[in-house]
Amino acid sequence: MNRLETIVSMVDKCNVVADIGTDHGYVAEMLLKNGICNKVIATDLNKGPLQRAIDHLSKENLKDKCDFRLGSGLKVLKEGEADAIIIAGMGGDLISQILDDSKDVALKASQLILQPMTATESLRKYLFENGYEIIDEKVVKENHFYFIIKTKKGKTKKEDEFYYEISRILVEKQDETMYEYIEKVLNRNEKIIRSLEKTGKEEYNEKIERIREKNKRIRELIKWI
Ligand SMILES: C[S@@+](CC[C@H](N)C(=O)[O-])C[C@H]1O[C@@H](n2cnc3c(N)ncnc32)[C@H](O)[C@@H]1O
Question: Which of 2, 68, 137, 149 is deepest in the core (most CB within 10 A)?
């Protein structure tokens, strides 16, 4: 399954889904064609992408099942209007900001499917610290590793910072693509250690030790699993 198919596969059947930052409208199309929801609120901050979605969904004869809205983040939604909210293809910090700007709307949805392009770590941190629980995660490798996080309002719990970067759920699921990702993280960290060591500067010793400890913990974790 590719990135968009995986996002859609993680949505539980419901009445209304909001696709924030819809752009081409492919997610809305898949949701409706697969009978996952009856209506999609397709939104975008920019006119061009929203028009692309209108054109595409009209061509697919799905326009009547869509409500198109121009505006930023969740500000275009009323509290409780969408059962599920998808925010995909944006930076993790922007996704956190969108959630934070409209807490009531976000926490009211029974499922949020979030797919950050960057800063996945800080998005997980935001969720853990702001009253969300992560219900599920998937990772897709295209040219890049894409993490897809399914979340909803839950108990704020103190999560070990290590798991901001290394998804606990995906490790526990023994996900094969996650193992590939972990290999990449280990190699990247080794490369950083080597280049810091090469400088010969003592000021980096603490950082080198921290990265070594992290890699040790990652290796122990995958051995234990
Ligand atoms: C890279 S596209 C992602 C399209 C689609 N969601 C996907 O995952 O393939 C990002 C879209 O988000 C829109 N966008 C950026 N900031 C936004 C915001 N604050 N609120 C709503 N849409 C936003 C952009 O205009 C663009 O169409």
Answer: 149
Residues 15 and 64 reside in one and the same domain? yes
User: In which residue are the tokens 């992290």 written?
Assistant: 214
Q: What pLDDT digit, counting tens, does each position of 59-93 carry?
A: 999 999 999 999 999 999 999 999 999 999 999 99
Q: Within 10 A of 82 (CB to CB), how many other CB atoms are there?
A: 29
In angstroms, what is the span from residue 23 Cα to ligand 1's centroid? 6
Measure the CA–CA gap between 195 and 6, rounded to whole angstroms. Answer: 37
- Are 150 and 180 found together in one domain? no
Among 43, 46, 87, name the best residue to mutate to test ligand 1's pocket (greatest count of ligand atoms within 8 A of Cβ).
Answer: 46
Ligand 1 centroid – CA 95 distance (Å): 10
Nearest-atom number in ligand 1 for the CA of 86 is 6
- As given in the structure block, the two tokens for residue 98 are 């969108």
Number of independent structural domains in the chain? 2
Q: Give the structural domain span for 217.
A: 176-224
- The answer to the question of residue 215 being in a domain is yes
The finding on whether 29 has its CB within 6 A of some atom of ligand 1 is no
Residues 10 and 119 in one domain: yes
pLDDT tens sequence across 97-134:
999 999 999 999 999 999 999 999 999 999 999 999 99
Beta-strand relationship, 39-44 and 16-20: parallel
Domain-embedded: residue 171: no
Regarding the beta carbon of 23 and ligand 1, being less than 6 Å apart is answered yes
